[in-house]
Design a protein that fits this description.
Strand 20 and strand 21 form a beta hairpin. The protein is globular and about 75 Å long. Among the domains are: 152 residues, 2-Layer Sandwich (Alpha-Beta Plaits), CATH 3.30.70; 37 residues, no CATH class; 92 residues, no CATH class. 25% of the residues lie in helices and 28% in strands. The chain has 450 residues and is of the alpha+beta class. The chain is built from 13 helices and 23 strands. The longest helix has 16 residues. The strands form seven sheets. Strands 1, 4, 5, 13, 14 and 15 form a six-stranded antiparallel beta sheet that branches. It binds zinc ion (ZN). The site of zinc ion (ZN) has 8 residues, from loops.
C-alpha cells in the first residue's frame, strides 16, 4: 500500500509534493531508559513511561550529528527535515494501553461486575454508577499499564573528590527496564524532497534515549513504512460521517484560543481548520508538558495540554478530515504532541485491561501477593506502612462502616496514584475477611523491607 495523504504542515503551510508518509518505528531497550519528567523532587526523579516524541527526535538528531547522517547531508538539510518536515511521535512501551478519559467502569468491582470499560463518548448513555453493584465509577486516566509496570528504581551515589561515596547523596530515579519494546510512528511531510532521509530513517541503528546516557538509554531503532497509510485507527480513506465523529488524543494536545492564549477548548483550533466544525461533547484531563532541551541544557517552556486519552465528540468535519488529521492538531506537533485518533462510532470499546483482570480476580490469588507483584519494587518500602495503616483503619471501623473506611483508604492521594492493577489488589486486600492476619503479614513484610 503506497497511498499518501495530503495534510498541512504544523505551521499551517501546505507541504506541496505528494502529501505525507507514515512510518512505524520500534525501540528495543538494550539498557535501562530514564527520560526525566519535570524537575528533580528531593533526591528522586520522576520519569516518562511513555517516551515523548521530543526525546526520540532528540536522539535521532544526535545520531545525525554524531556522524550517522545521510551521505552529503548538511545543516540546511538537517533544518528542513527536523524543523519542518519530520514529525516524531511518542514511544509507548508494550504492556501499556490507553484508557480514554471518557471511559467508566466499576471502581471497587465485585466478581459479578463487568470488567469492560463503558465509553461515554461512544456508547452514548450516561452512566453514573455501576449498573451491577450500584457502586462508584472509575474514569480512564490516559496511558496505563495493563500488566506489571516494566520499570525499576536505579539508585546511584554522588562521588567525592577521592571517588568514595559522599554521605547523604543518594539519587534515585526510575527507569524503564532493559529489553522493553517501545513503539511509535513518524510522519514525513513532503516525502518527495526526502527520499534519502526516508532511507536513512529505515536503517537500523543504535540510539541513546533519555538521561544518564553514559550508562543508560541504549536502544535499538528499527523503522518501516506503515502498511496502513492512514496513520489512524480508522480505515484508510474512510469518509467521515458528517453527523458525529469521536476524536481521541493519543499524546498530549496543546491548543490555543483565537487570542493565542492556552486553553483546553479544542473548538477554536477546529474552527480555524474547518469553520463548520464544533465540539458537542468532551472529556478532558488537563496536563502540564515540559521538557529538557539537551543542546542548550535549559528546560523547555511548560505548556498546558489536554492529557492523552482526552476525547471529543465533533460535528461538522469534512469527509476527508481523517486524512487531514494525520499530522495531528495543535502546537508542537513536530515533537509528537497532538497525535489524534479518529474512533469508529460503532462497536464496543476494546476491553483493554480484560487480559489482566481475570487474574486479579481469581479467588485463589492472594491479594497481598498480587499487590506486591504489580507495584514497582522500589515503591514498596514507602507503600507498605500506608497499606498496613489502611488495614488497621478498616479493622478498627465501627461495625457496618467497613465499606466506608475501605473507600476512604482508596481515596487517599497515595492510593489514587497507584496503577489499576495495584488499586484493584489494594481494594481486595482491604476487603479480606481475616484482616488481623493481613495486618500481621503486612507488619512482617515491613520488617523485611526496612
Ligand atoms: Zn460494580
Amino acid at each position: 500500500m503506497t497511498a499518501t495523504v495530503t495534510p498541512t504542515r504544523p505551521d499551517g503551510t501546505s507541504p506541496g509534493g505528494s502529501g505525507a508518509v507514515v512510518l512505524h518505528y520500534t525501540l528495543k531497550a538494550l539498557g535501562r531508559i530514564s527520560a526525566a519528567r519535570g524537575g528533580e523532587v528531593g533526591n528522586s526523579r520522576r520519569i516518562h513511561e511513555v517516551i515523548p516524541g521530543s526525546v526520540v527526535r532528540g536522539a535521532l538528531a544526535a545520531a545525525w550529528w554524531a556522524g550517522d547522517a545521510p551521505s552529503g547531508a548538511n545543516a540546511a538539510r538537517f533544518r528542513e527535515l527536523f524543523e519542518s518536515d519530520l514529525i516524531v511521535r511518542q514511544a509507548v512501551p508494550d504492556g501499556m494501553s490507553l484508557e480514554p478519559i471518557s471511559a467508566r467502569r466499576c471502581k471497587y468491582p465485585t466478581p459479578a461486575c463487568p470488567v469492560e470499560w463503558h465509553d461515554l463518548a461512544q456508547q452514548g448513555e450516561p452512566m453514573k454508577k455501576c449498573p451491577t453493584c450500584g457502586g462508584a465509577l472509575d474514569a480512564g486516566r490516559g496511558w496505563a499499564w495493563t500488566e506489571t509496570p516494566r520499570t525499576v528504581h536505579v539508585t546511584r551515589t554522588a562521588l567525592a573528590a577521592d571517588e568514595t561515596a559522599q554521605d547523604d547523596q543518594l539519587f534515585t530515579r526510575r527507569a524503564v527496564r532493559s529489553r522493553t519494546v517501545l513503539r511509535g510512528s513518524v510522519v514525513m511531510l513532503n516525502p518527495d524532497a526526502h527520499t534519502e532521509d526516508l532511507a536513512w530513517l529505515t536503517q537500523p541503528r543504535e540510539l541513546r534515549i533519555g538521561g544518564q546516557r553514559s550508562h543508560m538509554g541504549q536502544t535499538g531503532w528499527t523503522c518501516a513504512r506503515a502498511l496502513d497509510q492512514s496513520g489512524l485507527s480508522g480505515a484508510v480513506g474512510t469518509a467521515l460521517s458528517p453527523e458525529r465523529v469521536t476524536l481521541r488524543t493519543l499524546s498530549p494536545l496543546i491548543v490555543i484560543d483565537d487570542c493565542g492564549a492556552p486553553t483546553l477548548d479544542l473548538g477554536p483550533t477546529l474552527r480555524r481548520c474547518w469553520p463548520e466544525a464544533r465540539v458537542v461533547d468532551e472529556w478532558v484531563r488537563p496536563a502540564r508538558v515540559s521538557g529538557w532541551h539537551v543542546a542548550s541544557g535549559l528546560p523547555k517552556p511548560e505548556d498546558l495540554a489536554c492529557e492523552a486519552g482526552s476525547t471529543f465528540v465533533i460535528e461538522g468535519l469534512p469527509a476527508d478530515a481523517t486524512r487531514q488529521l494525520v499530522p495531528g492538531l495543535g502546537l508542537r506537533r513536530l515533537e509528537g504532541f497532538g497525535e489524534i485518533e479518529v474512533v469508529a462510532m460503532e462497536g464496543p470499546v476494546p476491553a483493554q485491561r480484560s487480559v489482566a483482570e481475570p487474574a486479579e480476580r481469581a479467588p485463589a490469588e492472594d491479594p497481598l501477593d498480587r499487590f506486591i507483584a504489580v507495584v514497582p519494587a522500589g515503591d514498596l518500602p514507602a507503600l507498605l506502612p500506608r497499606v498496613a495503616e489502611g488495614v488497621r483503619s478498616v479493622l478498627e471501623a465501627r461495625p457496618g462502616t467497613r465499606g466506608e473506611a475501605l473507600a476512604a483508604v482508596l481515596r487517599q492521594p497515595w492510593a489514587m496514584q497507584l496503577g489499576a492493577g495495584a488499586r484493584a489488589s489494594l481494594s481486595a486486600l482491604l476487603a479480606v475477611e481475616d484482616l488481623p492476619t493481613m495486618r500481621n503479614r503486612l507488619d512482617a513484610l515491613r520488617e523485611a523491607h526496612r
